[in-house]
Request: fold
Amino acid sequence: MSFQAYMDNIEAQTGKSPADLQALAIAKGLADEAGLAPGVKAGAVVDWLKQDFGLGHGHAMAIVAYLKGKRN
Reply:
């Protein structure tokens, strides 16, 4: 599955675009414009996405990659 397919599936499942999830992560203090917030581990973001949005581990890790700057 391509990275874009992951992003499309995440949006279909959550109703949120990757940019929307990034804004929510920033608001929660899990990320900043440069990536993960200082001291925040990927697991914290994964746990949040699993709990609040029902994402699986692979899709949550795709959002972590998105937060870190991956776009394709």
